[in-house]
Amino acid sequence: xxxxxxxxxxxxxxxxxxxxxxVQVSLDSLSKGHLTFAFPRDLNLQDQLFNYxxxxxxxxxxxxxxxxxxxxxxxxxxxxxxxxxxxxxxxLLVPDDNHPLSRNINSVFTEFVSSLDTVSVDNVRKSxxxxxxxxARGVKSPSAVSLRNIDNPPSRxxxxxxxxxVGVLLEGxxxxxxxxxxxxxVGLSRRPVIGESSDTKMVVIADGGIIINxxxxxxxxxxxxxxxxxxxxxxxxxNKDFLLNVVHYLSDDRGIMQLRSRTQKIRxxxxxxxxxxxxxxxxxxxxxxxxxxxxxxxxxxxxxRYYNRR
Length: 310
Known about the structure:
Blueprint: H1 2-11, E1 16-19, E2 23-25, H2 27-33, E3 35-40, H3 46-52, E4 54-56, E5 59-63, E6 66-72, E7 82-95, E8 108-109, E9 116-118, E10 124-131, E11 136-140, E12 143-146, E13 165-172, E14 200-205, E15 215-216, E16 223-224, H4 239-250, H5 254-260, H6 271-276, H7 278-309
Parallel strand pairs: 1-14
Antiparallel strand pairs: 2-3, 3-12, 4-9, 5-11, 6-7, 7-8, 7-10, 10-13, 13-14, 15-16
């Protein structure tokens, strides 16, 4: 029933933000036992999203561009000794700078994120708005997630997938997943089914944690951190700005979007050409004025002699 209501809401022109975790990971088990397992989570939405133009993949992404994790590396029985290690399961996603929705936004903090693919659908435009870095890879689920081998990370050659899609913007006319299906067949009373929507848009992101604030339970009362705040590094990433842009774009707030996407291009010097042509420009700046002065002196001397003879 919920699936039908969401579908018909979209058919009536409604906008939707899909924040989906297709892989389930128990953080409690990971923090207590240093080992947990990632299992596929069937949300019964694959056919619906596929019909709209996106497919969520049951895998966890690892990225060289990632947050860091503080891990106790002291031997058993010794005082705790915490060191920072790259946590490849926490990619810092890259907003696409070619679209106003994701332009000029800092990296987005995530953890246990999955990937998605776009599907060819008539009358639907697709724009990637969130990807990994050029050095990433996917780990199919089910799989083990362990902190024990954090000192022995995977070989860098394994991170050979570039800009894996995580978020996509879909715009256009969508076809209902319940088209040509009787409502009674899905347990609903007989009601008219809208088969195709007017022009509308939606955003699909293969991570539900992008909108979750971190909470510090070591203090009383528990302290809620800013959205996108990383307690380990002390940095605040672009989660809030990204989600605000999504909301403004879907609500057709063009004025705010134009302000947010305004760019100022800085014309930087080409450092490579500058380094290679350093001697040439130095000689030109030093010798050219001397040559010009000498030429002018010769011309002035010749003119003076000419007028003196007359």
